[in-house]
């Protein structure tokens, strides 16, 4: 019930239209309840009394009541469905906005398909409850109350007899509800699982095809689809079992009324019109109870969906702007790590980083080196507060970043992540993502700096060319250069390049390095690189091992010390230097041969 009340709280801003809907519903149910009473009068006062002059007025009154009911029913449905659409529109916006605020740590564990299912399927179930379920529940209650009152008014003995079957009917209805609630919750969970499998498979279709795993993926989907089928079948069995039982109890009540009421008519205790009206009221009494059963089913599904939706909304972002967070203004870019430790999970005692002390002055380029899992990527993700430190603190220009406004901080940090992501929109919009109001000239300037402008101009629609999902249609190097242009357009004071040149060829890297040499002036740059040139050109190299800084200095200084850095150099960079030297010798030999020919 808590979930339903929480959902209803979103209707507070639409009280007027809800009032119109409820008023229309009451008018419709009142008109519906009055109609059998008028039919009774028509039979007793006109047909049986042979007063044909009263026939037309009674028929006209029935038509007028039917018109009023139809108009009221329209007002009821239109008002409540409009309210439902508006509430769900608001809820979707709140839910999507909350997903935008949730921290990286939440998405580390969440499945995309699960989130998509909650924002679409679960929210749609809530809409059906608001637009159809609640109004029908109110309608059923008001119809039951009015009908019961009129039945007592007609004949209290018949009414008590008709109520004899209601406890059994009520028991069956609520028994059904208690069974079907967990069934539909499991159905919603299976929908989310199936969506997750489908989304993951479609996203990774190239990997699936490359490793010829189509049959394995089909088997995986078949398994989750079969589980979904079984749960749907179980829910349908509940419907197939309980609803015929409801119909039987209802028919039993009708038979009792016809037997006892018929004997009353024969004895002259009630009129034929009263028996006809009473039988109509009995049907009207059963319909709300059956509607309660149907709506109870919808309520159970909505509770299951609401729990899943509000579970997201109740998740607090692990990283939030502190109360009274400050806008630091234009930063110079002096970055200091003071005794920083970090672990990805609160229960995880193993720290990914431990005791990190590091300083980077404005305009400096700091290269981070280390084996996989040494903590390089974690360090650069702490600077824009994608995660918060577990211990110690990070200062920029002497200010703890936890006291800064998040947007103000991140607007001055340009990030090019290792996994390049482009949106399914134009190249222009992808580059201008951080500054949607940027002029075309500024976008082109950033593209030139990233050495991607010339390629863009060869495309049919140039900057308006729409790239496929996740940048499909562009090579790895092209996507990375678009991502670099996107970061440069924001003119960041701190530039973070997470192995951002791993997919570019040597020639392209050389062009980008030339551009970045000028762009780094006045900026603090952190680089995770696999290229020798990037490391040699860095002002400082920080060597990491198992989350700790084991050495630091320039390339020449570190080579002289013959420590851990030399091992990394021999493993990762020596072959690049040898390859470069060999290429230089080949050029010299070719030049010499040409000179000899001359």
What do you see in this structure?
The chain is elongated. The longest helix has 54 residues. The model has no long low-confidence stretch (mean pLDDT 81). 33% of the residues are buried. It has 20 helices and ten strands. The chain folds into two domains: 312 residues, ABC transporter type 1, transmembrane domain (ABC transporter transmembrane region fold); 227 residues, P-loop containing nucleotide triphosphate hydrolases (Rossmann fold). It has a six-stranded mixed sheet, sandwiched between helices. A four-stranded antiparallel sheet has the order 2-1-4-5, with helices on one face. Helix content is 65%, strand content 9%. The protein is α/β, with parallel strands linked by helices. Helix 5 runs antiparallel to helix 7, helix 5 packs antiparallel against helix 10 and helix 7 packs antiparallel against helix 9.
């Amino acid at each position: 019930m808590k979930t339903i009340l929480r959902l209803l709280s979103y209707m507070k801003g639409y009280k007027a239209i809800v009032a119109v809907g409820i008023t229309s519903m009451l008018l419709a149910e009142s008109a519906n309840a009055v109609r059998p009473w008028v039919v009774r009068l028509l039979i007793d006062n006109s047909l049986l009394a042979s007063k044909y002059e009263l026939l037309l007025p009674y028929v006209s009154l029935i038509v007028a009541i039917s018109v009023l009911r139809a108009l009221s029913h329209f007002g009821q449905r239109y008002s409540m469905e409009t309210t439902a659409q508006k509430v769900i529109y608001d809820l979707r916006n709140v839910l999507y906005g909350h997903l935008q605020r949730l921290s990286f740590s939440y998405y580390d564990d969440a499945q995309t398909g699960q989130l998509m299912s909650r924002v679409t399927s679960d929210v749609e179930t809530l809409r059906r409850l608001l637009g159809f379920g609640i109004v029908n529940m109110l309608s059923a209650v008001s119809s039951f109350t009015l009908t019961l009152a009129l039945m007592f008014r007609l004949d209290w003995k018949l009414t008590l007899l008709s109520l004899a079957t209601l406890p059994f009917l009520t028991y069956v209805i609520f028994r059904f509800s208690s069974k079907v609630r967990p069934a539909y919750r499991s159905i919603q969970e299976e929908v989310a699982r199936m969506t997750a499998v489908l989304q993951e498979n479609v996203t990774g279709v190239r990997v699936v095809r490359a490793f010829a795993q189509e049959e394995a993926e089909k088997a995986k989907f078949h398994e989750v689809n079969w589980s979904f089928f079984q749960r749907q079948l179980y829910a349908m069995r509940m419907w197939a079992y309980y609803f015929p039982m409801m119909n039987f109890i209802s028919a039993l009540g009708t038979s009792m009324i016809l037997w006892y009421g018929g004997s009353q008519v024969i004895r002259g205790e009630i009129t034929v019109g009263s028996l006809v009206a009473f039988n109509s009221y009995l049907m009207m009494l059963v319909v709300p109870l059956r509607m309660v059963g149907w709506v109870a089913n919808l309520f159970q599904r909505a509770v299951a969906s609401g729990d899943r939706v509000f579970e997201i909304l109740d998740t607090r972002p692990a990283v939030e702007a502190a109360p009274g967070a400050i806008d630091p203004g234009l930063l110079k870019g002096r970055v200091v790590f003071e005794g920083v430790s970090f672990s990805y999970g609160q229960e995880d005692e193993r720290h990914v980083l431990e005791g990190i002390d590091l300083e980077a002055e404005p305009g400096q380029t700091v290269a981070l080196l280390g084996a996989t899992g040494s903590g390089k990527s974690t360090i650069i993700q702490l600077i824009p507060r994608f995660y918060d430190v577990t211990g110690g603190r990070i200062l920029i220009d002497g200010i703890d970043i936890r006291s800064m406004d998040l947007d103000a901080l991140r607007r001055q940090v340009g990030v090019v992540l290792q996994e390049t992501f482009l949106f399914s929109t134009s190249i222009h919009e992808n580059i201008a993502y951080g500054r949607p109001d940027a002029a075309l000239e500024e976008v082109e300037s950033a593209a030139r700096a990233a050495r991607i402008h010339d390629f863009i101009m060869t495309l049919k629609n140039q900057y308006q060319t729409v790239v496929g999902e996740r940048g499909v249609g562009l090579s790895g190097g092209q996507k990375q250069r678009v991502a670099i242009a996107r970061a440069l357009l924001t003119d960041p004071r701190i530039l973070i390049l997470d192995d951002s040149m791993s997919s570019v060829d040597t020639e392209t890297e050389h062009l980008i390095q030339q551009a970045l040499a000028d762009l780094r002036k006045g900026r603090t740059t952190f680089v995770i690189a696999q290229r020798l040139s990037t490391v040699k050109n860095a002002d400082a190299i920080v060597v990491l091992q198992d989350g700790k800084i084991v050495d630091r200095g320039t390339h020449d200084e570190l080579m002289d010390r013959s420590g851990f850095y030399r091992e990394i150099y021999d493993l990762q960079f020596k072959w690049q230097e040898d390859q470069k030297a060999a290429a230089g010798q080949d050029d010299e030999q070719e030049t010499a041969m040409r000179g000899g020919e001359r």
